[in-house]
Amino acid sequence: MAIDRQLAIWRTLRGQRLKVMREFRGFTQAQMGERTRLRFGRTDYNKWENGHRPMNDEVAYRLCQALVMTPNFLFFGEIDDRFEAETSREFCARLLRARHELGLADLRSAPHRGSRPP
What we know:
Layout: H1 2-25, H2 29-36, H3 42-49, H4 57-67, H5 71-76, H6 81-85, H7 89-102
Helix pairs in contact: 1-7, 2-3
């Protein structure tokens, strides 16, 4: 049960990061399938964004490319200098709002800080 809860939290955090980046870049959920050239529908994307469906490596890689973000940000919330330089105060404000909506002290927060999902 604890592992299922941890996975659900990881998926929720990942989905929240997807949503924030998608909105920041100005895309709709329906446009994401075209942007990645994987041709998935809005429903599939919505499930990833809401944490209801796991994603494979290919999808994660293509989403990162389409949204101009690093896989480390998508999966772990880690922000490097290049990523930070490409973003703006508006993005940081959206990230803070998303963090607040989740009720977390930090978007990188996980049940066991520093651990990676199985």
